[in-house]
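Sorry to interrupt, but I need a hand with the structure work. Could you add the entry underneath, on a fresh line?
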Amino acid sequence: MIENRLAVEAAVAAALKEDLGDAGDVTTAACIPEASRSKAVIAARAAGVIAGVDLALAAFRLVDPAIRCDVGKGDSAAVAKGDVVMRIEGRSRGILTAERVALNFLCHLSGVATATRALVDAVKGTGTAIVCTRKTTPGLRAFEKSAVLAGGGRNHRFGLYDAILIKDNHIVAAGGIAAAIRTAKAKAGHLVRIEIEVDGLAGLDAALAAGAEAVLLDNFSIDDLRAAVQRTAKRAVLEASGNVSLKTVKAIAETGVDVISSGSITHSAPALDLGLDFA
């Protein structure tokens, strides 16, 4: 889609501008002949899941449109240590100048995809979905959410504009759970789902009585999650959040909640170790 391509090129162009400044790549210009040509390989130095290939390709394309890139592992592909993600051929200067920006995007987004896949695999067979949150890197939200999809997860709302999620401070300011839901229903469009965050079973009961369509169960214990599932009896979508890790996620999923949201898969995912080496 053209809007996706424009977003990718805008983000990569900004990153290149930040890196090149006003003087350009002075190291490469000083020691690499203009006519020099090279072949290079981007390969995995650790196992993981790939994401961000379009941004890496854009980095090379924007620096030198004549650089040739052959993708071996695209977005969503699982890689083992040593697997070739991309083969690159062209003018040495262009490859070197684009290298760090390409790898910054590719390593970070592949890290998000890898962290997501680990949670998705941990809850396999439970019927519970893993979703991301708005805890994203400013300016990179769309790309990080795409990486979550590449890892097998799903997307929560993209921003404040596309869904109503009434959180604890909204509840206080609105005058309580029932008042918040009632006011939101009066103002929301007919296609907008209303979700509300609660921190205990009493809050869940109040939300259900007020007609909440989805309820975020914030930092519930495993026992309270089970009780929440029983009390709700499919009257609303239940989302569990808080204390989500590889150690806890399966037990959370086995309570029967519909969705588990994790901020860590975007804001704390370690970069996947990928490297570019000249052949």
Summary: The first strand starts at residue 37 and ends at 44.
